[in-house]
Design goal:
With 461 residues, the protein is mostly helical. 72% of the residues lie in helices and 7% in strands. The chain has 17 helices and 5 strands. The protein has a 3-stranded antiparallel beta sheet with strand order 2-1-3. Strands 4-5 form a two-stranded antiparallel ribbon. The radius of gyration is 34 Å and the shape is elongated.
Length: 461
């Protein structure tokens, strides 16, 4: 029943996802948003945007217009070429998204678990190289295997007066040869399974003669006459290639690459990293609570409190700027955790299904995998389109930059809630000659520091 709605649901999701990922790219590539994490999110948005744009013509042709198109147009050669491109392109980009998500989790774990190594290990240059490597390696690993196991084949469909297919005759030579090989092997197996036995043959002849000698006759039910063939239509389908038909190991290797390398290994890595990130968040929260709580005064060795300048000395505490920075880091980590967990929810079932398909063969493919393919597709599309909502709901910097870029100025009169943030961002963008202003700011800082030092020295004296 969902198959009838899949075309319209996936079309709406793809249109909204295209808009959302375009906005993600525009916001994340702003100068004030440049960071290694945002660079990975931009690469992820580019891959998701390409998936959305490519899926739109597929769902319109195969689901929405499928009943209105004539059969020769529905299964034309150009459409078969597009289906071959779709099977490779969508899988390559989906694989890129998966491994960029793993990269995002690794980068965030280093930022939380090893902050002193973050700038060295996860700098902007290293991040750009990693993103480029993910694109190149995924294309080189996924494309050849999918290209080799599929081929465009020609068929002649015989249609009745209602346009229903009566028979489909293959015209591609390697498909014809493969079917003949199957028929010959089936006949050979039947002959080998039931060897001729003279006694059984004699018994069968005697029984058949007795049956034919009886006076009662039975009338066989009439055989329904097949519908007359009205017209023949040449169609083209994507089928297993000649190499794949004669090499079962190639098909199994392709399914294993899909299920294990593309799905299960990234999902297991994301699960481990997500758990470690959650533990790091809890540890950071406990450490921050300990630091912000009122510290007890320290005591000297003889039991008296240590005194400096006539006052009891307290344990050093982090200033508000450092604490706010740590809170911002935790908020970013929570947002990325939401991205990772949503990814796991949609990808783990597909990995399990792909592995079962490789282990159980064509029976599982027909009875289960193909029936759930539409559901798996819509889950993957939703996962690729929902990141914009997560960014807006969990990142203050993303909301501020988005508001600065797309919010009309006349709304500031009626919606002054975020006026200070927008004004600050606009002032930062409209600043002229930043180097001159930077020099002008540094000089007062030196004078202030000197004055403060002098006052402190006078007070102590």
């Amino acid at each position: 029943s969902y198959k009838n709605m899949h075309g319209y649901v996936s079309l709406v999701v793809c249109i909204l996802g295209t808009i959302a990922n375009t906005l993600n790219i525009i916001v994340l590539t702003r100068r004030e948003m440049r960071s290694p994490t945002n660079a990975i999110l931009t690469g992820l948005a580019v891959a998701d945007l390409a998936v959305m744009l490519e899926y739109i013509p597929y769902t319109i042709h195969d689901y929405i217009l499928t009943d209105s198109l004539p059969r020769e147009e529905k299964l034309s050669y150009s459409w078969a070429c597009f289906i071959k491109f779709h099977s490779i392109f969508a899988q390559v980009l989906h694989t890129i998204s998966i491994w960029l998500t793993v990269t995002l989790a690794v980068w965030r774990y280093i930022a939380v678990g090893y902050p002193q190594k973050n700038r060295v290990w996860c700098g902007m240059r290293t991040t750009i190289i990693t993103i480029t490597t993910a694109y190149v390696v995924c294309i080189l690993v996924v494309s050849p295997s999918l290209y080799l196991i599929t081929a465009i084949t020609e068929y002649v469909d015989q249609l009745d007066a209602n346009g229903k297919v009566i028979n489909s005759i293959p015209m591609t030579q390697f498909v014809i040869d493969y079917r003949n090989e199957i028929m010959m092997s089936a006949r050979a197996a039947a002959l080998n399974a039931t060897p001729p036995n003279p006694l059984n043959e004699t018994l069968w002849l005697n029984v058949s003669s007795l049956l034919t000698s009886t006076t009662t006759t039975t009338v066989a039910p009439p055989i329904p006459t097949p519908s007359p063939v009205i017209r023949n239509v040449t169609v083209y389908r994507l089928y297993h290639s000649d190499l794949a038909l004669h090499n079962a190991s190639l098909q199994n290797a392709t399914f294993l690459i899909y299920s294990v390398v593309i799905k299960l290994i990234p999902c297991i890595a994301l699960t481990i990293l997500s758990v470690r990130l959650i533990l790091a968040l809890l540890e950071a929260k406990r450490r921050r609570k300990k630091l912000t709580s009122k510290p007890a005064p320290t005591a000297s060795s003889n039991g008296t409190k240590s005194v400096i300048n006539g006052k009891a000395a307290d344990r050093p505490r982090k200033n508000s700027k450092t604490l706010e920075k740590e809170k911002q880091t935790d908020r970013t980590t929570r947002m990325l955790l939401a991205v990772l967990l949503l990814f796991l929810i949609t990808e783990f079932p597909q990995g399990i299904m792909g592995l079962l398909n490789a282990l159980l063969g064509d029976a599982f493919l027909v009875q289960c995998y193909l029936r759930l393919s539409d559901l798996m597709d819509i889950l993957a599309l939703i996962n690729s389109s929902i990141n914009f909502i997560l960014y807006c709901s969990m990142s203050k910097q993303f909301r501020t930059t988005f508001t600065l870029l797309f919010r009309p100025k006349f709304l500031d009169k009626w919606l002054p809630v975020a006026q200070d943030e927008v004004a600050a961002a606009r002032a930062e963008r409209s600043a002229v000659a930043p180097t001159v202003m930077e020099k002008g700011v540094r000089n007062p800082q030196v004078v202030t520091a000197t004055t403060t030092t002098n006052i402190t020295q006078v007070t102590n004296l």
